[in-house]
Amino acid sequence: MRPPALSDLNTSQLAWKKLEESTLEWLTPLLLKYPCKVAGAFASTHNHRPSYLRLSSLETGNHFAFVKLVSTSLADRERLIGNLGKEILHRGAATPVLLSVLSLPDNITAFIYEWVEGSPIGTSLKEMKLFGNALSNLHKTLAHVSGHFDIEFRTQKRLESLAQLASSPCFSTFWEDSTEREFVFRMRDVFLSDLKKMMSHASPCHGDINLGNILVRHDGTAVFIDLEDALHSAVWPGLDIAKAIERILLPRVSSSDIVQLESAIDALVQAYLTMDGQDLGSGFEPGNGHLARTMRWHTGLAIVVMTSNRHFGNSTIRCELTKFNEVIRLVDAYDYLL
User: Fold this and answer.
1) Are 144 and 94 part of one and the same domain?
2) Are residues 208 and 95 in the same domain?
3) What is the chain's mean pLDDT, rounded?
4) Which of 76, 94, 114 finishes a domain?
5) Which of 98, 107, 113, 231 has the fewest CB atoms inside 10 Å of its own CB, making it the most exposed?
6) Is residue 4 a contact partner of residue 60, using CB atoms and an 8 Å limit?
7) Is the sign of the CA dihedral 263, 265, 268, 270 positive or negative?
8) DSSP conformational letter for 179
């Protein structure tokens, strides 16, 4: 079913009861422009307001828009992400359409995106082939528009800054009392030592492939969500494949079914490589260590990024390190497949 046209939504109503009365004022301009109901919200900013909203039709209850709320100081960056989405849509890769931008009170800007109805990608061979083909198409599309968005330049500057932090006394000071200090420094060393390798055969990629960022629509097409990291992710494009295996396949395929895991990895990689001659570099094939090394590298990268983010609390850091440890445990266990 197609989402309702905005003109069909002619009554303003707020249905999400969790929003307090004091919060309703800054949502009023949004609801006047898009008469609807707020069907749900998720994630939070540190001021306890929702940072993402789902809007749905008053008449049918169907979702029709996804709203991302950002500080007005970050609005230019979000506009860039929206424009990147429009460019890749024009070239055949699927991502949500940016419908409009709306200024709200309290220095908040609302970016209203088309709602995409779909389900998370599965682990069947058919879905892995679909994903491999779609990812190949996305990478080629990003390569075509990368110069317009300075993706290579942004990547170089970001990685140079993170490498400096990883090598600095600040990094050592930040982690010196951590119970995971040995693990953190081991991953940091992998990040630094393999940085040049990740920049060889560099090409723009999504940068944040996970179960929530790729959906399969009812017509069988794959849609990529959240292009924020794509603005500074011109590295070895196998990074996206490695993240798909780490975040989509490894947690969901039974550890006792090695044949299924190996077949799924092979289906994904071969679909990617055979899509109009896509290239992942000389000598690449599953099982020769490229993917395992890449997973360790971006775990190190994630730890350095976490070090640079002053908003992380101790509980968040512990939770993230537990997750990273599990990632590396899985990578070590299936190293011979990767």
Assistant:
1) no
2) no
3) 83
4) 114
5) 107
6) yes
7) negative
8) T
Q: How far apart are CA 326 and CA 320, in angstroms?
A: 10
> What does the alpha-carbon distance between residue 117 and residue 135 come to, in Å, rounded to a whole number?
19
Helices (H), the chain: 21-33, 75-90, 125-145, 151-166, 169-175, 181-193, 195-199, 238-244, 258-273, 290-308, 314-333
Q: Are residues 107 and 251 in the same domain?
A: no
Is 62 in the same domain as 166? no
Closest to 32 measured CA to CA, from 53, 62, 6: 6
| Domain range for 260 | 119-337
Whether residue 66 is contained in a domain is answered as yes
Query: How is residue 6 written in tokens?
Result: 């905005």
How high is the pLDDT of residue 42? 56
Of residues 240, 246, 241, 218, the one with CA closest to residue 227? 240
- When computed from its CA atoms, the radius of gyration of the chain, rounded to whole angstroms, is 21
Same domain for 127 and 52 = no
pTM: 0.85
Same domain, 183 and 330: yes
- Same-domain status, 45 and 177: no
Banded pLDDT at 104 (limits 50, 70, 90): confident
* Residue (of 326, 266, 277, 271) closest to 302 by Cα position: 326
- CA angle centred on 191, ends 185 and 196, rounded to 5°: 150
Tens digits of residue pLDDT in 249-293: 988 876 668 888 899 999 999 999 988 777 787 677 777 889 999
* CA-CA-CA-CA dihedral for 121, 123, 125, 131, to nearest 10: 30
Q: Dig out the tokens for 141 from the structure.
A: 């599309």
Please count the helices (runs of H) and the strands (runs of E) in the chain: 11, 10
Q: Please, are residues 187 and 214 in contact by the beta-carbon 8 Å criterion? A: no
Q: Give the residue from 316, 169, 149 showing the smallest Cα distance to 233.
A: 149
